[in-house]
Amino acid sequence: MVEAVLHSAGIFKKLIDSIKDLVSDCTLACTRNGIRMQAMDASHISLVSMQLNSTGFQQYKCSKKFNLGVNLVSLAKLLKCAGANDSMKIKASPHNDTLSLSFTNPDESIISQFEMKLIDISEETVSLPAENNVCIAKIPSGEYQKICRDLLTMGEDVRIQASPRKITFSSFGQIGSGGFTLQQNIEDENSKISIITDEKIDLTFTLKYLNLFAKAGPLCDFVTLYLSPKSPLMVEFTMGQLGFIRYYLAPKVDEANESDDEDDDKDMKQD
Amino acid sequence: MVEAVLHSAGIFKKLIDSIKDLVSDCTLACTRNGIRMQAMDASHISLVSMQLNSTGFQQYKCSKKFNLGVNLVSLAKLLKCAGANDSMKIKASPHNDTLSLSFTNPDESIISQFEMKLIDISEETVSLPAENNVCIAKIPSGEYQKICRDLLTMGEDVRIQASPRKITFSSFGQIGSGGFTLQQNIEDENSKISIITDEKIDLTFTLKYLNLFAKAGPLCDFVTLYLSPKSPLMVEFTMGQLGFIRYYLAPKVDEANESDDEDDDKDMKQD
Amino acid sequence: MVEAVLHSAGIFKKLIDSIKDLVSDCTLACTRNGIRMQAMDASHISLVSMQLNSTGFQQYKCSKKFNLGVNLVSLAKLLKCAGANDSMKIKASPHNDTLSLSFTNPDESIISQFEMKLIDISEETVSLPAENNVCIAKIPSGEYQKICRDLLTMGEDVRIQASPRKITFSSFGQIGSGGFTLQQNIEDENSKISIITDEKIDLTFTLKYLNLFAKAGPLCDFVTLYLSPKSPLMVEFTMGQLGFIRYYLAPKVDEANESDDEDDDKDMKQD
Predict the structure, then answer these.
(1) Is residue B271 part of a domain?
(2) Residue B126 in contact with residue B47, Cβ under 8 Å?
(3) Which of A86, A257, B100, C212 has the least C-beta neighbours within 10 A?
(4) Phi and psi at residue C157, to the nearest 5°
């Protein structure tokens, strides 16, 4: 049996909204320590990993580990019934085929109560990429969203180039080429942009997925990108003590780059 | 001849918008006492009754009773030409086949003037259900709108259950079941929710119509539901001295309930 | 070579947005004095004339006159990448087949840089109508936008009638007829409406084009209409020192009016 209370139904709503377009059916693993979900997207290209810590809930009880098979599209529909400032209670037990959700408005005059049907789903074994982070770039999540959306008007891929205190997102297509360069202000300790890297990074990703990850933007003010040569990108959104959501995406393999790494310094790759 | 001046074209705009999706062609009956409209919706399932009192207008003159045949969709289009803070003047006469509308902006620098073609329509005799109100529930119209809209994501019907100081709107469908419970705070004299009932109410209605009625929500802060066992629901929105708009809808006949009323206490009906 | 810096990318964005639905491919003529564009719309019915003065830019350099062939739809897409408060730099040279655009956000932490492909386009020789302005009407551009949009619900044409201190825009169609009268308050020196005319004006135009011109509304608070009997209308939006955008449209020829001008005083023409 799991029973969990969260002050803000809104944060759970945003969380499910940020996953449902990538993964529709998934397994929520409930344990004493919290609720965890790891899944590949429907086209088996990207990975999502979500962790909600028991300590981040206002109340959390789970007597023993068990799995909930959930359709996230249905769950997102139910969560639309929650008011922006409602608190939320989730309840489920291994003996039951429904997930129970209830929302209470601030003055407790309106209580809504829903039973959602659970689904049978065989647990996917997902192995997350090894952590091997040469470059860590922290940028405002609003800027991340805008850049990913704007570059879609240019092309289908995004080239990410990073060097100390500087990261560039660029694209090219029919109408031309171009991109965004974000720079850390070293004189400003509170710079909203921070790029730490040991070596130069130059990787290309499918823009569509970076845009799908951007749906988690409303969860927090900043997003952190973890980049390493020839390794998957990890895009992380944290929700304070409550936990995090992480997305993984492998870079596109570029034959020119494979055989010859010397063109790293060109500003725009247009092959 | 009728000639009427209203301080706010906006309220008339909202009024027509709240009817036009139910009733397209209707008869406005103009008398010394005001303007009245009663009609069934196109599928002959629900009823609308609107009353505008002569005393609610800034000026009102009507020498003798006559009927105006109006297409409400055209009227709603013309009313879009009114600014939010414009005043409005309506003019029509039995000898004329047009309705004259004019709008004046607050500083009187812009006056708009329209002639709308009237239509020939035989007056429908509509008999309103007898008033027999066992339960009167007053709730914020914003909540009514949200509940009706949210339940559409669940199912096609809404079950309304009322007991003293408590009303529940619930639904069920493919993804699960659930609903909203609104409770009157008896310790708070200014409680925004008030439910007065002599006996327990348990009725089911087609959600689509309750959503159509919800379009009148912008007309006032509160909506009042009048409920009686086996009788049509009346949903009332009042506009102060100006009058009201009322919608009527018969409950769905449920055979199980007909033969056996004892399942009133079950929280959710899922047959 | 032309190199120009503008404090606000936003104004350039609005400018291109106000032209791109009329003219997709055009020639920007760059000279020492600024950038000029004159083109007919795709259906060869209306004319657009844009002038950006070198003195309106924060920096402007152009060594010798040359033409840039630009697809405005692509340019509008690129300009969406500019933040609302970004500054903008444009660069192009006759030897290059791209236009270079860069945007810088207020704290200079984000710089975006784009290369847009130029197009081959033979310069259109456009002869602007002679200036012969009997009537000059200045009205708030928000009102102009609202009137043009609202009249579309009535009909396809707009009849513009002007007399000293008064201008009427009217239309008629299936649902009826009507229009807007704007009046100058002679007692108020700061009247937002000013209509100066030597003689009575009565002209009819295709509403669709007046609506397309209205897209320039966000560029400035007021729009000026220049009207003369049997002559094209000029609709002008000015951007202070930076320049202007002007649209030209010939009136519809009405045979009744041609042979007989005496019906000028009728309020609404419904032939």
Answers:
(1) no
(2) yes
(3) B100
(4) -115, 160
Residue A8 domain boundaries: 2-117
Binary contact (C178, B71; C-beta < 8 A)? no
Q: For residue A216, what is the enclosing H or E element? A: none
Among B107, B111, B117, whose Cβ lies nearest the Cβ of C176? B117
Given B117, B143, B169, the domain boundary residue is B117
Q: How close B79 comes to chain C (CA, Å)?
A: 10
Q: Are B79 and B18 in contact (CB under 8 A)?
A: no
Q: Residue B11: enclosing H or E segment and its boundaries?
A: helix B9-17
Which of A114, A116, A117, A118 should be substituted to probe chain B, the one whose Cβ sees the most B Cβ atoms within 10 Å?
A: A114
Instruction: Count how many domains chain A has.
Output: 2
Say which residues have a Cβ less than 8 Å from residue B211's Cβ, sequence separation at least 6. B148, B149, B152
User: Which residues on chain A are in Cβ contact (under 8 Å) with C109?
Assistant: 182-185, 191-193
A 3-32 residues inside an 8 A Cβ radius of B: none
Q: Which residues of A touch C112 (CB under 8 A)?
A: 178-181
Q: Are residues A153 and A201 in the same domain?
A: yes
DSSP designation for A242: G
DSSP B262: G
A residues 74-103 closer than 8 Å to B (CB):
74, 77-78, 80-81, 83, 98, 101
In C187-263, DSSP assigns E strands to 194-197, 201-206, 222-227, 233-238, 243-249
| A110 vs B contacts (CB less than 8 Å) | 143, 180-183
Closest CA to A132 of A252, A2, A256, A229: A229
Question: Which chains sit next to B, with 3 or more Cβ pairs under 8 A?
Answer: A, C
CB interface of C with A, residues 146-205, below 8 Å: none
Of A150, A193, A268, the CB nearest to C81: A150
Whether residues B99 and B151 share a domain: the answer is: no
- Please tell me the distance from the alpha carbon of residue C50 to that of residue C238, in angstroms, as a whole number: 10
Q: Are residues B35 and B103 in the same domain?
A: yes
Closest CA in chain A for residue C109: A183
CA distance B206 to B211: 9
Q: Which amino acid is it at B119?
A: I
Of C229, C35, C231, the residue nearest C130 (C-alpha): C231
**CA C209, C212, C218, C220 torsion: positive or negative?**
negative
Question: Within 13 A of A67's CA, how many CA atoms are on the CB side?
Answer: 12
The CA angle B138-B140-B145, to the nearest 5 degrees, is 110
For the CA atoms of A259, A263, A264, A268, the dihedral, rounded to the nearest 10 degrees, stands at -120
Same domain flag for C254 and C140: yes
Could you tell me what percent of chain B has a pLDDT over 90?
81
Tokens in use for A153? 């008007």
Same domain for A172 and A258?
yes
Print pLDDT tens along chain C (271 aa).
899 999 999 999 999 999 999 999 999 999 999 999 999 998 999 999 999 999 999 999 998 999 999 999 999 999 999 998 999 999 999 888 999 999 999 999 999 999 999 999 877 778 899 888 899 999 999 999 999 999 999 999 999 999 999 999 999 999 999 999 999 988 888 889 999 998 999 999 999 999 999 999 999 999 999 999 999 999 999 999 999 999 999 999 865 554 444 444 444 333 3
> Same structural domain for residues C158 and C105?
no
Q: Of B137, B136, B143, which Cα lies nearest the Cα of B217?
A: B143
Please indicate whether residue A224 or residue B96 has the higher confidence score (pLDDT): A224
**CB pairs below 8 Å between B and C: how many?**
57
Q: Residue B57's domain is classified under what CATH number?
A: 3.10.150.10
Contacts of A268 in chain C (CB under 8 A): 115
| Rounded Cα distance, A223 and A241, in Å | 16
* Predicted-complex ipTM score: 0.88
Asked if B117 and C181 come within 8 Å (Cβ–Cβ), the reply is: no
